[in-house]
Amino acid sequence: MKLNTLLQSWLLSSLTLNVAASTSFFKEVVPTKRLTEDSMCQKLRNMEYAVRGKVVIKADEINTLLKSSPKGTFNFDHIVYTNIGNPHSVGQKPLTWPRQVLALADLPNEFGIDHPDVEKMFPSDAIARARQIKDALDGHGTGAYTHSQGPLQFRQEICDFIEERDDLKKGSVDPKCIFMTNGASSGIEMILNALISSPKSGIMIPIPQYPIYSATIDRFGGTQVGYYLDENKGWDMNVAELERALAQAKKEGVDVNSFVLINPGNPTGQVLNKKAIQDILKFCSKHNLLLLADEVYQENVYREDAEFYSCRRAARDIGLDQSGLELVSFHSTSKGLYGECGRRGGYMELMGFDSAVRDQLYKLASSHLCSNTPGQIMTSLMVNGPKKGDASYEKHESEKNAIFESLAKRASIVSDGFNKIPGFSCQTVAGSMYCFPRVEMPQGAIKYAKKTGMPVDTLYAVSLLEKTGICVVPASGFGQEEGRHGFRTTFLPSEEEMVRVVGAVRDHYTAFCNEYK
Amino acid sequence: MKLNTLLQSWLLSSLTLNVAASTSFFKEVVPTKRLTEDSMCQKLRNMEYAVRGKVVIKADEINTLLKSSPKGTFNFDHIVYTNIGNPHSVGQKPLTWPRQVLALADLPNEFGIDHPDVEKMFPSDAIARARQIKDALDGHGTGAYTHSQGPLQFRQEICDFIEERDDLKKGSVDPKCIFMTNGASSGIEMILNALISSPKSGIMIPIPQYPIYSATIDRFGGTQVGYYLDENKGWDMNVAELERALAQAKKEGVDVNSFVLINPGNPTGQVLNKKAIQDILKFCSKHNLLLLADEVYQENVYREDAEFYSCRRAARDIGLDQSGLELVSFHSTSKGLYGECGRRGGYMELMGFDSAVRDQLYKLASSHLCSNTPGQIMTSLMVNGPKKGDASYEKHESEKNAIFESLAKRASIVSDGFNKIPGFSCQTVAGSMYCFPRVEMPQGAIKYAKKTGMPVDTLYAVSLLEKTGICVVPASGFGQEEGRHGFRTTFLPSEEEMVRVVGAVRDHYTAFCNEYK
């Protein structure tokens, strides 16, 4: 059993640092800092965030080395970043029309919409929409703080979008209940901040989950109450398991006040059916739990037998929209077919919230002044795109379709491909941008990992990175059943690259099993 | 003494709500919410943020009424929002060149920098810079998440800017120590999060202060340790007062770990001289306090006898840059001459920080993925503008100068104007965008305010709003000595409007004194 040099030096450097820090000699030499890992907020220190964790830091280091090292130093010529849902970073082209509108909205009128040559560069519907956006911004342009929740007209467009998507009566959704946010993350953070009043405040989260939840709950000092998704049933939800998790938490003195649902699933790629969603709503209603619905992948549903069914629609369908059920749904421009991550656009919709709590959230939003205007504009465009007959309609639709169809193909490439690797098992990916294969780890790896105090799937992920340049996130970063191992990968790089990735993962796994048998 | 109808109804509605909520009948009728003001995070509930507080909410309500009411319903035809430093919302035009670069950076190449007609609409240096920015973003464009701290090349430009501004040796500032942030606010929040490890964690803040500090300290559950600025000496800093405040806090068992300096001052408009800055650094070094330097108004210095002197430069000048002093400086695209608030661009530079703490801050930044890319681009442009000889240089400089000169004029209009009102006293405004006059309140107003439990300067600000349409922030929202009263106003509306505002404030004050004599 032999570790390659990089991995070895990395493990050694971690050990060295720990040893050095614990000798009193070292402590005397280094000048005392006021803010250290020991004196800082320990909740923040102990927070874990795997998506950009140790493996990714290592990948960035190798990426830098790659540029300065002679050819042949590594077995690969580039890092394949499949650790994060960041479509444009791995080749997805931005949709054209939203960028054209955005550019015109940013340009002062005389250099943009009113420039004599504007029609040479921009289609008529982009010009018209930029004009509308300038009106929505009260003529202040993109450089002014907006209303803390976002401009009223954008919020109204979001309401219209939700009503149309869910076939709700016109006027069912109130712009007062919409908060535009910097991506979905900042909305999630606001709600968790409000929900966590003491260490006993419990939030039910799926296992596996997207680590923004565990990280933020840790940071605000609440308690994670995990409920397991059923891997053998395609990561389905199981009400008995929800009841078990809740009962156990209550027995332990946790005051469970809320429930997180991620649908379509991250990292698990499932799309829940109507009954499952309705069951969750009933469960929340029965136990008086506030429901956080992370629905940022609502456009990313690839299987013909699957369909996105929003919690908002479910609430209406089973009559819980008027009953006082508290629901917040998050959406984002980062995912879907826009993939505009860097824009940090998004919103949350509150349903059934106490209006005094809504005022408190308004206050919190105000202390950050407002979310960024280009992100707000992108959100407005996402929920209200070109209409049939508009100059850009055909092009926009065809760009979106191409992205969608390719994503659907890639979803199959990875889940089918991984499933064919002996020792791997991968649920079918119905939605989102991820798959989450289970990987049997060789005994030698398990033993070695135990000895070094590193989760075995981190050992695996580091090895995969160093041998192939493929950067995945160890499954332990998302939570999983004891004894299960694996990783999360996106399928965002090109179809060709994903085929290569599957092959490289297979070959590496054979070598890894030999190395650690 | 007679309150006008709106104020009366506002006070009554608050009272009514309180009464209704306390009757058991009401409690039975309304369905129980899980998340209420009582069950939510109490630190968040108790947090105050005055800049967009009650008076502004009232202003927004009137603004809506204004649009739907017949002419003559109010004494004014528009609200003058001087509550917030939001230049573009009150008529300041954006600088042209940064918007042109931004638009081209957002456009896909074939529709932007490579479009055959691009030179008809855009100057050559904007096209060239957009090309560089696309390279800095690794060819991923503005739609991808960047490095959690911002792209390396942008951070390097920030380092160059700081080194040039402070006449530091090339290479003194390390891009690893730069974090690009959504405005300065999110950087401030990150640092305060790290600093507050228990309710005893104390942060020294000026009184008066910008309420993001008090609000965020409250939200994270730390302790504010106020030190008073000396109003009679133009809001100067006084070391004896710093020692007093620190000693008192220590006596009360507070573990004071840090010190906030806002220079140029918000809300106070002073610009500290070299000695004052150096004294603060020595004070922090002596007591091992981490220094948070809010330097977002560094370009907003209007008096010829004043000069911005950064903490970074002071540290070098007195040899504290190598001593281990921990300093973080915040900057933003929202202020200065850009005034690009909606962009949410900014950065913080860490000096002397423990590298393990820096890693923790990196982790925290990563959990938010990255700051928004248009904000990052605007920051890059702000720190590295057009150079002499570039196509846009002359125009860019002349636009900046026009904004600067007009701000300088308006600073005098308000501080001189308020000073001439009997009962008002206003320190000269040397910098920033605000002035903070002291106002003698009539006894009747003080008594009435006491009776209703409302700070008297809130009563005053609401009255000013309702009679004149001018929206200021009560001084109590920023902190002030017991018995002092007043308000903060920006001087961002046009010169003409600011002359009118001063007159209207004077006339209203006479009427207010009569009403409450």
From TrEMBL, chains A, B:
Q: What superkingdom heads the lineage?
A: Eukaryota
Q: Which cofactor does it need?
A: pyridoxal 5'-phosphate
Q: Which UniProt keywords apply?
A: Aminotransferase, Pyridoxal phosphate, Signal, Transferase
What sections of the sequence does the record tag as coiled-coil? Answer: none
Record-linked Gene3D superfamilies: 1.10.287.1970, Aspartate Aminotransferase, domain 1, Type I PLP-dependent aspartate aminotransferase-like (Major domain)
Answer whether the UniProt record assigns the keyword Cytoplasm to this protein.
no
The segment(s) forming the Aminotransferase class I/classII large domain are 127-504
Whom does it interact with, and what assembly results? Answer: Homodimer.
Q: Which family does it belong to?
A: Belongs to the class-I pyridoxal-phosphate-dependent aminotransferase family. Alanine aminotransferase subfamily.
Q: What is this protein called?
A: Aminotransferase class I/classII large domain-containing protein
Task: List the top taxonomic levels of the source.
Answer: Eukaryota, Sar, Stramenopiles, Ochrophyta, Bacillariophyta
